[in-house]
């Protein structure tokens, strides 16, 4: 339909030139001939060879009939008619070919520019892929979207997994993909617009990539293959880095737990040894003195057992999912027990306990909540000046019971507030000054969330408040 319209428009142009040159603006034959040549050039440039050829024939006939003597007759025998026809035909042929070549080069340039832009966009996308889901799965999805492909399929040799993307399916191509990944072979199916290329890292094939959609130049296919290879190698490097980091953190966890255990166990163990040594050195002591020493040994041994339980619990909670055993418990009573158990650490430090008026009995795991409160109080004592009070406030809300622990230390910067709950994180400014493992706050937050609550922090210079929030009504047990 479009060609027919262009042909009709071309013939109409010949007719318009004829009417203008013959009736409206009568001119000599030479001027009209130049007008016809100009018209053929325009038609060849804007249209194609067919339209220019038909316009040339029509221009030759009308030029002969209306402007060459004898006027009103078609006389091809005259040599000047042959010259006119030949001139129009050669003009249309050369002009249309030049125009077609120029259009082809323009289309090729635009296509090449589009391919380069797509390759650039794909390369940037590879760098921006996050860890929200599998890297190869995101890779093929972005490839299908950026290059507007019907289907993309990737077989990774290392994992032996297939990853698919696109609105269509690539059926019956698994064997070709495996061959490409193992042997480096290629495969093309022009009828179904499919191509399979090998993804190489150096000379070694590492994956096979199948594409279905519009045909692409070999240079673009090779560019895609190279970018996919770089992306897969980057993902592999990140996996190795994560494994190394996990191993490093695991070693650091063991070291910090051992250091924490040695530090925490030293005080009660020293008291037990002192009491038993005194009893052994003087067995003839009075009954009251022996009972006092035995009481001290018993209390410190109990304290030591609690420290061991806490250390083991911290290691378990850090490496596994938290299993919560709900039972009715009074949060205020738990807070009092924690403060009493930590009295040797508190010593003469001012600790204020503010309890709500209403009973604070809710369903919680008493052992875990006790450990969480202990971590918060221990953290406050470490970072608060010796002469400044630490405040523990139990607030009974309508939906939550909140245990707020406030200290008056130097505060936590906004940048670090988002990181202090990270596993093993310690502020560089205090890491060498204050002992600690970097596990307490992370575990306390995990305990709160296992109870469907949360642990938050607000801080400014001179005041830091940690809020342990526990819901009054539990909807179930989280494991």
Which properties best describe this structure?
single chain, 479 residues, alpha+beta, Beta-Lactamase, 4 domains, 13 helices, 12 strands
Describe what you observe in this structure:
By secondary structure, the protein is an alpha+beta fold. The chain contains 13 helices and 12 strands. The chain has helices spanning 2-24, 29-46, 49-67, 79-128, 135-146, 174-183, 218-281, 287-319, 331-341, 343-346, 366-383, 414-417, 440-450; strands at 151-156, 161-165, 187-189, 194-201, 204-212, 327-330, 351-354, 361-364, 390-396, 400-407, 454-460, 463-471. The longest helix is centred in the middle third of the chain and has 64 residues, at 218-281. Residues 431-435 have low confidence and may be disordered.
List the helices and strands and how they pair.
Blueprint: H1 2-24, H2 29-46, H3 49-67, H4 79-128, H5 135-146, E1 151-156, E2 161-165, H6 174-183, E3 187-189, E4 194-201, E5 204-212, H7 218-281, H8 287-319, E6 327-330, H9 331-341, H10 343-346, E7 351-354, E8 361-364, H11 366-383, E9 390-396, E10 400-407, H12 414-417, H13 440-450, E11 454-460, E12 463-471
Parallel strand pairs: 7-9
Antiparallel strand pairs: 1-2, 1-5, 3-4, 4-5, 6-8, 9-10, 10-12, 11-12
């Amino acid at each position: 339909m479009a060609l027919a319209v262009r042909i009709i428009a071309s013939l109409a142009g010949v007719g318009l030139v004829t009417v203008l040159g013959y009736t409206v603006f009568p001119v000599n034959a030479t001027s009209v001939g130049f007008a016809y040549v100009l018209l053929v050039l325009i038609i060849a440039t804007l249209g194609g060879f067919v339209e220019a050829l038909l316009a040339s024939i029509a221009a030759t006939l009308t030029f002969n009939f209306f402007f060459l003597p004898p006027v009103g007759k078609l006389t091809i025998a005259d040599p000047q008619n042959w010259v006119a026809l030949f001139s129009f035909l050669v003009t249309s042929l050369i002009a249309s070919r030049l125009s077609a070549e120029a259009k082809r080069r323009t289309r090729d340039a635009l296509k090449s520019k589009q391919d380069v832009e797509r390759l650039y966009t794909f390369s940037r996308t590879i760098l921006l892929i996050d860890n929200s889901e599998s890297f190869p799965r995101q890779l093929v999805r972005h490839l299908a979207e950026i290059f507007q492909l019907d289907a993309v399929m990737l077989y990774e040799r290392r994992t032996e997994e297939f990853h698919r993307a696109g609105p269509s399916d690539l059926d019956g191509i698994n064997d070709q993909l495996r061959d490409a990944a193992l042997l480096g072979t290629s495969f093309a199916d022009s009828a179904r617009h499919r191509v399979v290329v090998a993804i190489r890292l150096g000379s070694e094939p590492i994956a096979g990539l199948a594409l279905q959609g519009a045909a692409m130049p070999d240079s673009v296919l090779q560019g895609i293959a190279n970018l996919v290879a770089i992306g897969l190698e980057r993902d592999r490097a990140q996996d190795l880095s994560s494994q190394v980091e996990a191993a490093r953190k695991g070693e650091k966890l063991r070291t910090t737990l051992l250091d924490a255990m040695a530090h925490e166990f030293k005080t009660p163990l020293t008291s037990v040894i002192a009491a038993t040594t005194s009893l052994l050195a003087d067995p003839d002591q009075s009954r009251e003195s022996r009972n006092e020493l035995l009481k001290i040994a018993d209390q410190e041994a109990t304290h030591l057992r609690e420290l061991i339980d806490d250390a083991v619990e911290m290691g378990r909670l850090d490496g596994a999912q938290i299993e919560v055993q709900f039972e009715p418990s009074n949060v205020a009573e738990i807070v009092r027990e924690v403060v009493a158990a930590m009295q040797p650490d508190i010593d003469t430090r001012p600790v204020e306990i503010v309890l709500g008026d209403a009973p604070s009995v809710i369903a919680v795991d008493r052992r875990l909540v006790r450990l969480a409160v202990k971590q918060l109080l221990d953290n406050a004592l470490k970072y608060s000046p010796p002469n400044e009070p630490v405040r523990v406030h139990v607030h009974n809300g309508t939906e939550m019971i909140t245990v707020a622990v406030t200290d008056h230390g130097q505060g936590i910067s906004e940048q670090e507030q988002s990181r202090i709950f990270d596993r093993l994180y310690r502020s560089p400014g205090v890491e060498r000054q204050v002992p600690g493992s970097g596990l307490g706050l992370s575990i306390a937050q995990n305990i709160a969330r296992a109870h469907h609550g949360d642990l938050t922090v607000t801080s400014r210079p001179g005041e830091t408040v940690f809020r342990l929030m526990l819901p009054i009504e539990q909807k179930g047990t989280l494991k």
